[in-house]
Amino acid sequence: MAEAVYTLCALTSVACAVLLLRAYRASRTPLLFWSSLCFIGLALNNALLILDFMVLPSVDLSILRSSVALAALTVLVGGLVWESK
């Protein structure tokens, strides 16, 4: 059951990233760009979660997963700060 939840979370993140990128191409609003980059990072984080728990259970990828999530959220916060100036 957990595998299905991890997979659905990854697919949802990818769908959000695609929709945000499409909206950015249509309107060129910079915040949509930063949000789409964040969701791309979160989708990668979810893919690493699947890889960590289902494909390679003997390998600990928690530091890599956390680093990717931190980078994704840093991009979003950086974009918010950049656009507020």
Low-confidence stretches: none
Order of helices and strands: HHH
Number of strands: 0
Looking at the structure, what is the overall shape?
flat
Whole-number tally of structural domains: 1
Query: Helical segment tally?
Result: 3
- Determine the mean pLDDT: 95
Proportion of residues in extended strands = under 5%
Kindly report how far apart the N and C termini lie.
45 Å
Give me the Rg, rounded. Answer: 14 Å
Question: What percentage of residues falls in helices of 4 or more residues?
Answer: over 70%
* Main sheet makeup: none
- The chain-level structural class is mainly alpha
What can you tell me about this protein's structure?
With 85 residues, this protein is mainly α. The protein has one domain. Helices cover 88% and strands 0% of the residues. It is built from three helices and no strands. It is flat, with a radius of gyration of 14 Å. The mean pLDDT is 95.
Descriptive key words:
85 residues; mainly alpha; flat
Characterize this entry briefly.
The chain is mainly alpha-helical. It has helices spanning 2-27, 30-55, 62-84. It has one domain (2-84).
Note the topology.
Layout lengths: L1 H26 L2 H26 L6 H23 L1
Helix pairs in contact: 1-2, 2-3
